[in-house]
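Can't paste images in this forum, so I'm doing it all in text. The chain is below; anyone willing to post the predicted structure tokens underneath?
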Amino acid sequence: MNFPGQSGIDLLQKFKEQGIGAEIIMLTADDTAETAVKAMKFGAADYLTKPCNIDEVKIVVSNILEKRKLKREVEYLRKVNSTFF
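Text version of the structure:
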């Protein structure tokens, strides 16, 4: 969440403002609820605190991939449905 000269939140905001479609997982040593809420508010896909283990990372990435898949399916079904009506 902290980089020289700017915070991870600043960087997250820049990515989102520029329309970069990447899902961003924030990683920080600050485990306060306030920080997590702030990251999610600005568009983080998820939030991990240090030290995190590989199982946590796998679960978060798996959830993000599943959510993305479901979004694509919904978009496809809406498109197909709109051609019939």
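The mean pLDDT is 89. The helical segments are 8-17, 33-41, 54-84.
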